[in-house]
């Protein structure tokens, strides 16, 4: 086992960031004897095993069937009288099933865990955060981290990637967030583009250690497939020291740490570090070796406070010197950072922004630049020296510059040229073979432009296309495909935020 520890330690030391854990139901089974997916469904239907066998372990399909059957049971069975009393205002057919799943996990004693030495070692692991598909709250009892419950929480909040738990399939303390049926997964996949973008950032910047999953787990295959698609085939090799898969193996003769691959499509695999072991204690102890100078919760509050200071430019209160290591309660502490004259630093910072930052901000509605007027007057003029296509109208609008009040003398000549550019001229003839799956959507947009029927253009479909094909933008080389993508992004900028002749 010492060889596995040393190899894991060696891989983790290569990264400038602490790892994230990606935790599955195997962890809850190991320490609390909680059921797997099939076992959970059996608690709500005596026909669960029949359905599971009949539908070849298609658990979302089986969950949909049980959800349908359970609705009548929940309203009629006295076993659920208390739940019915507590949830008088339910309006949807899928709610009773999720309410009782949540109730099941909410009544677990999370302090009555097995393998106490392992759990105590896990608590001391130095990690930046956790991603999990588990509904239970075991991890929250071990780590005093900020918890995001479900897809909506992740999509509509700013994540800091420090001291956070991302429960991507929902949480028992918020029953409506639970993803378990066919319909839930369809909605999850439809809205998965932006979530994938956030997860991709984690995978590129942190080692990700998978615990409690099988290598064949469909959820993991889907996540990795989306990540791979997002970063593009040319960048796959950058994941070789990022993905560490720990598989439970009782046969000590098979214990190993090897370079392996995970097939995610018939002709496409990604590199992983594959650990087979039953000694999780050593894994956790290795994770505690890299000492963090500042506790994760404290560091997260510092990062959030600095973000708020930059966003508001209005610091309040008094500065103090504190002994961080001996702080017991961080709730009343405020943090400040001296980073130079605010206006001067802001100006310099906006000169460092690249074109890809603007396109990502546009495509994902990120609104990550607090001073849009600096984008207009500093960033865009600098970038136009090397770029033909850049989004302009979003930042004009955010700077409150309109077709009525814009001043040609104060704006860069290329911005003026774009303002005066006739939108019908966007009907360039691109090589649409690049965008085979979305060709019909784009051709329809060109047709509406040609016929001067702008009101018929669905710019949301164009935005979805841009999100799904963002990997084109990440290509370091200047290609015709990348140029066509940027043209379409600029058209989207004009359609959503621009004005017309």
Describe the fold and architecture.
- The chain is of the alpha/beta class.
- It has four domains: 2-34 and 113-287, Rossmann fold (3-Layer(aba) Sandwich); 37-106, no CATH class; 296-339, no CATH class; 352-497, no CATH class.
- The chain contains 23 helices and eight strands.
- The protein has helices spanning 2-13, 25-32, 37-42, 48-54, 59-76, 81-86, 95-106, 116-123, 138-142, 151-155, 182-190, 192-205, 218-231, 280-287, 296-312, 342-350, 355-363, 372-383, 393-398, 413-420, 439-450, 459-468, 480-497; strands at residues 20-23, 129-132, 146-149, 164-167, 208-211, 243-248, 256-265, 268-277.
- An eight-stranded mixed beta sheet has the order 3-4-2-1-5-6-8-7.
- Helix 10 links the parallel strand 3 and strand 4 (164-167).
- Helix 1 runs parallel beside helix 14 (280-287), helix 5 (59-76) packs across helix 11 and helix 12 (192-205) crosses helix 13 (218-231).
- The longest helix is centred in the N-terminal third of the chain and has 18 residues, at 59-76.
- Residues 317-325 and 335-346 have low confidence and may be disordered.
Which structural traits does this protein have?
single chain; 501 residues; Rossmann fold; 47% helix
What is the compact description of this entry?
This protein is an alpha/beta fold. It contains 23 helices and 8 strands.
């Amino acid at each position: 086992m010492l060889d596995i520890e040393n190899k894991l330690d060696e891989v983790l030391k290569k990264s400038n960031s602490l790892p994230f854990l990606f935790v599955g139901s195997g962890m809850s089974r190991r320490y609390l004897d909680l059921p797997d997916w099939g076992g959970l469904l059996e608690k709500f239907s005596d026909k669960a095993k029949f359905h599971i066998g009949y539908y070849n372990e298609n658990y979302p399909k089986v969950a949909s069937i049980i959800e349908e059957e359970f609705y009548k049971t929940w309203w009629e069975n006295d076993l659920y009288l208390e739940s019915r009393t507590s949830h008088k205002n339910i309006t949807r057919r899928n709610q009773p099933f999720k309410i009782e799943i949540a109730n099941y996990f909410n009544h677990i004693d999370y302090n009555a865990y097995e393998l106490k030495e392992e759990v105590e070692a896990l608590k001391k692991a130095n990690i930046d955060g956790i991603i999990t598909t588990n509904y239970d709250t075991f991890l929250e009892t071990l780590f005093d981290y900020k918890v995001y419950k479900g897809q909506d929480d992740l999509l509509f909040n700013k994540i800091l990637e420090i001291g956070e738990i991302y429960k991507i399939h929902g949480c028992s303390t918020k029953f409506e967030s639970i993803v378990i049926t066919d319909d839930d997964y369809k909605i999850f996949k439809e809205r998965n583009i932006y979530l994938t973008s956030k997860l991709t950032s984690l995978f590129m910047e942190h080692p990700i250690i998978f615990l409690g999953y099988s290598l064949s787990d469909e959820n993991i295959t889907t996540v990795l497939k989306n990540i791979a698609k997002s970063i593009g085939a040319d960048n796959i090799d950058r994941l070789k020291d990022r993905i560490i898969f720990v598989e439970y193996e009782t046969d000590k003769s098979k214990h190993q740490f090897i370079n392996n691959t995970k097939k995610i499509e018939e002709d496409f695999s990604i590199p992983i570090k594959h650990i087979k072991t039953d000694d999780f204690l050593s894994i956790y102890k290795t994770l505690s070796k890299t000492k963090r100078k500042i506790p994760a919760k404290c560091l997260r509050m510092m990062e959030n406070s600095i973000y708020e200071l930059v966003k508001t430019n209005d610091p309040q209160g008094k500065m103090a010197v504190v002994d961080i290591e001996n702080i017991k309660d961080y709730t009343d502490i405020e943090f400040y950072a001296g980073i130079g004259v605010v206006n001067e630093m802001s100006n310099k910072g906006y000169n460092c922004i690249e074109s890809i930052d603007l396109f990502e901000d546009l495509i994902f509605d990120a609104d990550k630049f607090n001073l849009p007027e600096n984008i207009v007057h500093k960033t865009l003029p600098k970038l136009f020296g090397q770029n033909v296509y850049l989004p302009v109208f979003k930042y004009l609008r955010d700077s409150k510059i309109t077709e009525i009040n814009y001043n040609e003398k104060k704006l860069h000549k290329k911005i003026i040229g774009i303002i005066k550019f006739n939108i019908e001229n966007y009907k360039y003839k691109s090589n649409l073979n690049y965008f085979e799956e979305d060709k019909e959507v784009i051709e329809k947009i060109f047709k509406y432009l040609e016929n001067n029927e702008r009101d018929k253009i669905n710019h949301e479909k164009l935005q979805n296309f841009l999100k799904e094909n963002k990997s084109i933008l990440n290509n370091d080389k200047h290609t015709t495909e990348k140029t066509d993508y940027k043209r379409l992004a600029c058209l989207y900028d004009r359609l959503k935020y621009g004005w017309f002749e």
